[in-house]
Write a structure and sequence with these properties.
Blueprint: E1 4-12, H1 20-38, E2 42-49, H2 54-62, H3 67-84, E3 91-94, H4 98-113, E4 117-127, E5 132-134, E6 150-159, H5 165-174, E7 179-180, H6 182-193, E8 199-200, E9 202-203, E10 219-220, H7 223-226, H8 229-233, H9 240-248, E11 251-257, H10 261-275, E12 282-286, E13 289-291, E14 294-295, H11 306-313, H12 315-325, E15 332-334, H13 336-366, H14 378-399, H15 403-424, H16 426-429, H17 436-457, H18 462-471, H19 529-533, E16 537-548, E17 551-560, E18 565-570, E19 586-590, E20 596-598, E21 601-603, E22 606-607, E23 609-612, E24 615-618
Parallel strand pairs: 1-2, 1-11, 2-3, 7-12, 11-12, 13-15
Antiparallel strand pairs: 4-5, 4-6, 6-8, 9-10, 13-14, 16-17, 16-19, 17-18, 19-22, 20-21, 23-24
Helix pairs in contact: 2-3, 5-6, 11-12, 12-13, 13-15, 13-17, 14-15, 15-17, 17-18
Length: about 625
């Protein structure tokens, strides 16, 4: 039996329509699942919806539905979108399903028998928008994640989350790949070290939920219900053999947005520790999407509808853009101009031209028949060597969720094969009968490369891969083919016949921008280049952050410059409500400013920010850029 690889999206909130963010998460998992299938894993790919929330009950009543009828209706939005996005999930879970209710009750029973659940009373703050109780130490200026909280007093059952603080820190330290990327791991560790509080797990103010069998009138609340879905789909307490294969002995990866990282990286592993079950191998948190440089929100009217984008640009172009444009773990910007440039440059020019030129020449020179009378040169060994290099690098990139870099590797090979055409000039080889063997070798290598490229792009663009293979005259079962099958050079069957070339990616027109500028500017307070060169701006990493008592606007940050650690005071506190999220970020700092004292704290530099529409943001740089790099 092949080793199991289990990948999950978060379960989505069905009250809200799917958008580019939910599409991105799900496409990530689909790409990974398809790639892992190619490498020989037995795939379990789960997505679904989280239906047991108070706001869902309220929305159902507002719209004249029972809660069950409402979620039955709303869950269809996700099922239909995943079909349109060509998502290859093997399971779709709903938290209203009986299989899930039974698993939640079983986990509660095990955790309670461990002595980790107790009855108490919650007196404190509650976030209505996030549907969570909020400890005082998580409030910033009286708000939680920038949103209002209310006072609540309610009898509740609690999970002893605080009991697992040290165990969590130990597990994270001993398993460096448990939380990705590195910056997010640092954020979680910092939060745990502030001290964990026990978690309320039941509510009595509404009844849309799984009843808590410990006391009548209580329903199981949010995280014990929602997070347990991952066990349900793996066969927990239903099929012991399946569960052992998928969860206990398999590889388990959760992919989530950064906003729910703490719940997955703290609460979830603590529940599993209490229940004495294996922890997932990796929890990977991606960033958010902005739109044309602005935050995506209903109020701005700029929420991206995936279905509309597919109609405009095509499914595989949409999938490619999301995976190529974003660096996993960082925020990315969705731009119409960038989308069109990617389609025209990467897809139409690079991949499309390689396919069209190859088939067109094969038709002209050999009537679409693939022949091979080997006449090899050193240049042929170069492309074979590059192919092996690309395969090796691709595995590393994919395993580290560096999807943009993985696509760069594939496109490096595509670019090399386009160059191979120009270097060999098949049109000149065709003119000389003596060079016919060399011509057949060159053309065979081009056809062979396209076959291999089709397999590599399949996880990202499955429809495109199938179209390429079809034009190559092959009948391939992508559900069973493995990378190992195309690893060697020379697998395309000699004597096979290509089909006619059909353009896959038509070029799109970019609306021309008027290039107007003022050639008679009046610059205020001008400086010379010599003045600018006096400023020492370098890349630093934030390794510690805290608030300054009595100074609401200031944050005290400890940064690593690559040579030493410095303290910098910055007036960005109100723009970073959850300051712990700054830990691990690489930013720009002016380091040759004379130290000053602010609120009795020394400041040894200045962090650079942008300021737009009364919003201030630190200038972040790619994690791959080394500390101490000079900005010129």
């Amino acid at each position: 039996m092949s080793k199991s690889f289990y990948i999950t999206t978060p379960i989505y909130y069905p009250n809200a329509a799917p958008h580019v963010g939910t599409a991105y998460t799900t496409i990530i998992c689909d790409v990974v699942a398809r790639y892992k299938r190619l490498t020989g894993y037995d795939i379990k790919f789960l997505t679904g919806v989280d239906e047991k929330k108070k706001k869902i009950q309220e929305a159902a009543e507002k719209n004249g539905f029972t809660p069950q009828k409402w979620v039955d209706k709303m869950s269809l939005n996700f099922l239909s979108l995943w079909k349109e996005l060509n998502i290859s999930n093997t399971d779709f879970i709903r938290t209203t399903q009986d299989r899930h209710k039974n698993v939640v009750k079983e986990i509660i029973r095990k955790v309670n028998e461990k002595g980790d659940i107790y009855r108490g009373e919650y007196i404190g703050k509650y976030s209505v928008s996030e549907e969570t109780f909020v400890p005082e130490n998580q409030l910033i200026n009286g708000k939680y994640m920038g949103k209002e909280v209310i006072d609540v007093k309610e009898v509740s059952y609690f999970f002893k989350l605080s009991k697992y603080q040290d165990a969590l820190l130990k597990h994270i330290e001993e398993n460096p790949d448990f939380i990705k990327p590195e910056g997010k791991k640092n954020e979680v560790v910092s939060f745990i070290k502030q001290g964990l509080q026990d978690l309320s797990i039941s509510r009595t103010t509404f009844d849309w939920g799984i009843p808590l069998e410990l006391e009548e009138g209580h329903v199981i609340y949010v995280w014990f219900d929602a997070l347990t879905n991952y066990l349900t789909a793996a066969g927990y307490s239903q099929n012991s053999e399946e569960f052992e294969n998928i969860w206990t002995n398999g590889i388990v990866n959760h992919v989530i947005g950064k906003d729910i990282l703490r719940f997955h990286a703290i609460i979830w592993p603590a529940i599993l520790m209490s229940a004495e079950e294996e922890l997932p191998n990796t929890i990977s948190a991606h960033g958010w999407w902005t739109v044309e440089g602005e935050k995506m929100s209903k109020s701005l009217g700029n929420v991206i509808n995936p279905l509309e984008e597919i109609k405009k640009y095509g499914l595989d172009s949409f999938r490619y853009y999301l995976m190529r444009e974003a660096t996993f773990g960082q925020d990315a910007d969705y731009s119409k101009k960038a989308m069109i440039q990617r389609i025209n440059s990467d897809l139409a020019n690079d991949l499309g031209n390689l396919l069209n030129r190859t088939i067109g020449m094969q038709k002209k020179y050999f009537n679409l028949d693939v022949v091979l009378n080997k006449k090899e040169l050193s240049i042929d060994e170069e492309i074979k060597s590059l192919w092996e290099e690309v395969l090796s690098n691709l595995e590393i990139r994919m395993n580290n969720y560096q999807f943009s870099e993985a696509l760069k590797e594939i496109w490096k090979f595509i670019a090399r094969m386009n160059k191979y055409i120009d270097e060999n000039e098949p049109w000149n080889l065709f003119k000389d009968k003596i060079l016919e063997d060399r011509l057949s070798t060159v053309m065979y290598n081009l056809v062979e490369s396209l076959y291999k490229i089709a397999i590599l792009i399949y996880p990202f663009m499955p429809d495109t891969a199938k179209k390429i293979v079809d034009q190559l005259g092959l009948n391939i079962d992508f559900d069973t083919i493995k990378l190992e099958d195309v690893k060697m050079w020379g697998i395309y069957p000699v004597g096979n016949r290509l089909n006619e070339a059909v353009p896959i990616f038509p070029r799109l027109e970019i609306e021309e921008e008027k290039k107007e500028f003022n050639d008679n500017l009046n610059i205020e307070n001008p400086i010379t280049i010599e003045d600018f060169l006096k400023i020492e701006i370098k890349v630093v990493e934030i390794i510690g952050v805290s608030r300054i008592e009595g100074a609401d606007k200031l944050l005290k940050l400890i940064v690593n410059t690559g040579k030493e650690k410095r303290q910098i005071i910055s007036g960005i506190a109100k723009y970073y409500i959850n300051e712990a999220e700054l830990i691990g970020k690489k930013v720009l700092a002016v380091l040759n400013l004379e130290p000053v004292e602010l609120k009795n704290e020394i400041s040894q530099g200045m962090l650079l920010t942008t300021s737009e529409k009364k919003k201030v943001k630190l200038i972040e740089v790619n994690e791959e850029i080394k500390l101490g790099t000079i900005v010129k």
